[in-house]
Each structure stands twice: as C-alpha cells, then as structure tokens.
Amino acid sequence: MSRPSHSRSNPRPRAPAHVFAALGDQTRLLLVRKLCGGEPRSISQLTRGSRLTRQAITKHLRVLENAKIVRCVRSGRESLFEFNPQSMEELKQYLEFVSVEWDQALARLKSFVET
Amino acid sequence: MEHRIEKRIELKAPVSRVWRALTDYREFGEWFRVKLEGPFVPGQVSRGHITHPGYEHVKWEAVVEKMEPESLFSFTWHPYSVDPKIDYSKETPTLVEFRLEKTPGGTLLLLTESGFDKIPSYRRDEAYRMNEGGWSAQMKNIESYVTPKP
Hints:
Strand content of chain A: 5-15%
Low-confidence stretches of chain A: 1-10
Order of helices and strands of chain A: HHEHHEEH
Number of helices of chain A: 5
Shape of chain A: elongated
CATH class of chain A: Mainly Alpha
Helix content of chain A: 55-70%
Strand order of the largest sheet of chain A: 1-3-2
Number of helices of chain B: 4
Number of strands of chain A: 3
CATH superfamily of chain A: Winged helix-like DNA-binding domain superfamily/Winged helix DNA-binding domain
CATH architecture of chain A: Orthogonal Bundle
Helix content of chain B: 10-25%
CATH topology of chain A: Arc Repressor Mutant, subunit A
Mean pLDDT of chain A: 80
Shape of chain B: globular
Oligomer: heterodimer
Number of strands of chain B: 7
Radius of gyration of chain B: 18 Å
Structural class of chain A: alpha+beta
C-alpha cells in the first residue's frame, strides 16, 4: 500500500466526494454489504429479498459503479457486479492525509503560542 | 458510530493566548498558513488564500459556526482543491471544532473534524462480520483514523 504523497503545507487533496455521496444511501449501503465479501453477484441475486424492483436496484448499482465502488463484469448474457476495494483505499488515504495535515498545523500552532 | 478525526494537544500558553491565536484572523493565518480577508464572524463566510509558496492560487473558504470565548471555536468548510474547475459545493463539508480547557500547565486543545460520517459503519453489520475478506482490514485502518484516541 502506498502512502499518500504530500509534503508539508500542501493543500488538502480532493475529498473522494463521489464515494462519500454514493455511500450515503441505505439501499446502496446494503448492496455494498452484500458485495464486499468479494463474490460477484447478479442483479437478480441482489434484488432477491428486497422490496425494490429490479430496475430500482439496477439504478443504485449504476450509481455505485460510477463511483467505482463496484464494477460490472459480464458472465455470458448476465451482468454481474463485484466490489472494488480500491475505492475504500481512496477514502483511507484521504483520511490519513487529513490526519497528518492537522498534526502539522497543530505543531505550528504550538510553536506559535509558546514562543 | 460517528466518524471523526480527533487530536488533543497540550499547549504551554494561557487559554487567552491560544484563543487569540485561533480566532484573530491574522494570527490564525500565521500558523495555518492562510491569508484571510477579514475577521471571523459567526454565521459568516471567511475567505482567503493559502500563503504557502506555489499554492497562493488555492482559495480558503469556511463558514464560521461558533465563537464561545476561550472555550469553543468552530467552522465548516469544503475541503479545497488546486483544480479551479471543481465545484466546491459538491464536496463533502466537514465541521472543524477547537475546544479549549485550562490546565495547570496551560491549555488543552481538543480538535475534531467530523462529517466523514458517510463512511458506512460496517463493523456493526452482521453481513460484514460474515464476510471477513481482505477489505475488513482496510475498514479497520479507516476506523483507526476516524475513531477518537483514548
């Protein structure tokens, strides 16, 4: 795993807002939970047990696909969806950057008020 | 479970000194490395730009939330970007809070940045527990960054 490349005082990189936004929905969270085990699943499998229609589930899957949280892979005539762990790596790196950024800012504040 | 970054730092300076460094826009700019256009006013937008050489074109924008003297200073902001084409309003806004407490040695500063709560709370999820795949480790890493340290 590569550490985010940044030096002191670099501006904060873009928040992976599309990932945050895509995850901010109960139906999509549920879909990600079903997929994060790694096993690709069909739309039918993902619709099973849901009160939503196949069309509605497909729409949510497309949102997740656009945010690169899931990938669509074809198996014969069927579309399967699988989880893309890289999207979570992006979130993790962002939060790591924010954390380091605050450490540096607070260290500057400390020397500013203590001298 | 709320996801947030929390930092605590002991400062060998009186609370009044730290309060000024946080809320006087010129002093804030000194250590935060931002040139602000004017004083912080609750409810109002604070604008400026980064002063670090090479990044002067980067804007700084925040909305001041609370200024409770020598106790709490908070603002919300949209994490900024060097790309002028990006619409900041679509970025996830986060809330930054500075809380001050008097200590025998000076001031305890508690900083939190929250609003990362869109990150799903998988740990409590049954389905997730059944799926101990490679990404459970990743989620633990994420949580180590957003869970307050004791």
